[in-house]
């Protein structure tokens, strides 16, 4: 089973709510990985940005009754997550 935790994307580890600050080091709580520089965001950071909303497509192959249901459903799902 998977879960989603919705948080504001931090700019760096110092702003991250899942960072563990303890002596003697700073740690990424999720990956149990030491942080060398908390003012940067490492390339291995597990946080991923939300995907973008889809533009509705007018192509009849992608729509039914003139509505692109795939894009509408995708965008509705993103809106529910962001609430």
Overall description:
The chain has two domains: 10-48, no CATH class; 50-83, no CATH class. The protein has one helix and three strands. It has one helix spanning 69-82; strands at residues 19-21, 26-28, 33-34. A three-stranded antiparallel beta sheet has the order 1-2-3, with no helix packed on it. The protein is elongated. The relative contact order is 0.15.
The tally of strands reads 3
| Strand order of the biggest β-sheet | 1-2-3
DSSP helix count?
A: 1
Unreliably modeled segments = none
- When the domains are counted, the total is 2
Secondary-structure content class = alpha+beta
Q: Mind describing the biggest β-sheet?
A: 3 strands, antiparallel
Question: What's the helix-strand series?
Answer: EEEH
Proportion of helical residues: 10-25%
CA-based gyration radius: 19 Å
Strand content: 5-15%
Mean pLDDT: 79
Which features characterize this protein?
83 residues; alpha+beta; 2 domains; three-stranded antiparallel sheet; 1 helix; elongated
Structure at a glance:
It contains 1 helix and 3 strands, in the order E-E-E-H. The chain has one helix spanning 69-82; strands at residues 19-21, 26-28, 33-34. Strand 1 and strand 2 (26-28) form a beta hairpin.
